[in-house]
Specification:
- The protein is mainly α and 146 residues long.
- Helices cover 64% and strands 10% of the residues.
- It is built from 3 helices and 3 strands, in the order αββαβα.
- The protein has a 3-stranded mixed beta sheet with strand order 1-2-3.
- Helix 2 links the parallel strand 2 and strand 3.
- About 17% of the residues have low confidence.
Amino acid sequence: MFTIERTCEQFQFPTSHKLAYAARQSLSIKREEARITGWENLQKAKAEAAIWKLEMKLEKKRSSSMDKIMKKLKSHWIVASVGYKLTKQGKSIIKTTSTEAGNRNTRLRQEATKVGAMVVSGVEMFVGPINGQFKLFIGGLDKCVQ
């Protein structure tokens, strides 16, 4: 067996040159870490921008789809200043809301007669649903009383 004995002269203590080199290495490492952090932040910002861009694209597609749906609905519903057209179970019903348009042959009535739709006056349009609700209400009371 052998033993290693060292004396104080054998140890090499850091000199100012070695300390300066270590300081430069430390600064180099810090710069590299800052560069990496900057790169990570840039990648994160790019990813967020890509996500935002995709969200905007989806929103645009959604709104254009809604526009297409509304156009289809408008093609099924004739909207005019005097009333509107309802398509229900293959029958077209055009209701006029203006009482002064009662007997006049308006453009809406002309369109209704062309397509063979039934024309309903404003009074009939108002009374019809109320009559149905009243019957439901009365029927509901009869069931409660019995």
